[in-house]
Design brief:
It contains 10 helices and no strands. The protein has 191 residues and is mainly alpha-helical. Residues 1-23 have low confidence and may be disordered.
Length: 191
Amino acid sequence: KSISLILISLLLPVFITGSALASGGFADVGDYWATEAINWASEKGIVEGYPDSTFKPTQNVSEAEFAAILARYVVNTDKELISQRQEGKHWAQSIYDELLKWALPLNGYTNDAIKDSVITRGDVARVIAAKNGFNLNERQAIYYMYENDLSSGMIPNQMTFDSYGADKPLQRDQITQFIKLLNEKGVTTFM
């Protein structure tokens, strides 16, 4: 009986670890609509999980987190510069400093409170359009996302301004899908 308990205690972590690794190493991402995108972005070093082996896919994304993900994704940012932390400044300030060259419509370049605030799906559409060289208002940017197959909205079979959810916070699972779609379209640089 004690041998059985010892075997179970030795093998149980192997089974648990194996199932976590099957979902990219995240305990909270299994059979999920964004699993493929989350695993892809994690493998590419674009996103990271948390120390407790979770990804927290439905957690909202701050503007700074979005900026960091975008800066890690595109090929024409200075990766060494964006990985540096400036003493006494916001953790993402070097990322904002790098992204300033492209004048992306981010609001936190000089405001740490905005850096830490949740970014909306509408703001993301504007940034993605600007990343590709288009200075569009929110409505135009949302239709840009649709026309370029970068989003299908939040309501199946409805690609309208309202169904996009412009005022809704961007979630971690959604950003991995956006970035993966950009990659599939070959859009890997800032214009």
